[in-house]
Amino acid sequence: MSRYRGPRFKKIRRLGALPGLTNKRPRVGSDRRKQSPFRKRSQYRIRLEEKQKLRFHYGITERQLLRYVRIARKAKGSTGQVLLQLLEMRLDNTLFRLGMAPTIPGARQLVNHRHILVNGRIVDIPSYRCKPQDIIISRDAEKSKTLIQNSLDSSPRKKLPKHLTLQPLPYKGFVNQIIDRKWVGLKINELLVVEYYSRQTKT
Fold it and tell me: Which tens digit of pLDDT belongs to each residue from 148-165?
């Protein structure tokens, strides 16, 4: 399944807030599909919707998410928490959490267009896994600096998660440590996602 490029408000109305997908909010009362209070959601549908939240918030494909789940199952610790750490430590998400891009798709575009340096080297892979002590900064080019400055100026300043630090002028991001579960920027039940993929990741 390819990366989603359709209407973003449609996904928000169905799944709830997805801050990584868009920084806009649908108007109150705008063509919202209301579920009948007498219609009970199946357990499968509940798990599916939690999985879809991860996909659309982080902007990854079905194949990528399944690969992350398999990696998380082989790692030490809780599979669900390791999965969230893998997704949160992606470079595109880290740029978004720092405020250097308005959304995760916007951050991915910065990386793909070679505007970002990690530890002094250009990184053009959005899925690059950030590590403690990584230093993230824009290229010295004027266009790169302007894109990041515009994002920081247009978005309301949010409290940074404790695993990140942003140094102003020139804007430079520091990865202090691996993210803790309580700092994840999405309301999600990761255990339901692991359950959804349980049959596909047994082998």
Answer: 998 888 876 778 999 999
